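## tool: complex_structure
## caller: assistant
## args:
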Amino acid sequence: GNSVTQMEGPVTLSEEAFLTINCTYTATGYPSLFWYVQYPGEGLQLLLKATKADDKGSNKGFEATYRKETTSFHLEKGSVQVSDSAVYFCALTNTGNQFYFGTGTSLTVIP
Amino acid sequence: GAVVSQHPSWVICKSGTSVKIECRSLDFQATTMFWYRQFPKQSLMLMATSNEGSKATYEQGVEKDKFLINHASLTLSTLTVTSAHPEDSSFYICSALNTGGETQYFGPGTRLLVL
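## result:
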């Protein structure tokens, strides 16, 4: 079956620290992978995506590389800001009609 | 980018009343929309998949008579919480599948409080 496993939070970092949020997946076939971000009180926003192996998605300084050999899609950012404080969700889809989300990882960045 | 709106963003109602939440894709047509429910500090729980012009497909454990979904056009889906009770209080989020069918775009969510 299909599933997504994210590292449990919460994660607290100082401003300008390096961020990694781990995400691994189980899927049949060749899924597309996503990271969504949810700011307090808001809905989810697409942060980045990758549709095939070795693709790197990037946006707003965040990156994630689709690693088929390790079935991973870890989110990274070299220098976090206070404004990056949010909950991050890893997700996958095989067909586009069914998305599977991780449980979310809460990130708090302190000045 | 693709924009999805929800209305209302906040609703407070008395127990026993019905509440309708609208989800609109503003700049693209969406044959498929999804409705999620999110409890505090938890992930999204898919409630149902809504396809334009056909009946919604509900996830196991979701009462279809309680949560009525209508997808009457390619840009609008509605969720009606019928005879709402305090345990229905939650954050309801819709999403729409883009034309290519590979990415979901989410609405900003509707916070429902049933007194």
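## assistant note: Chain B touches chain A through 24 residues (CB under 8 Å). The mean pLDDT of chain B is 90. Handing back to user.
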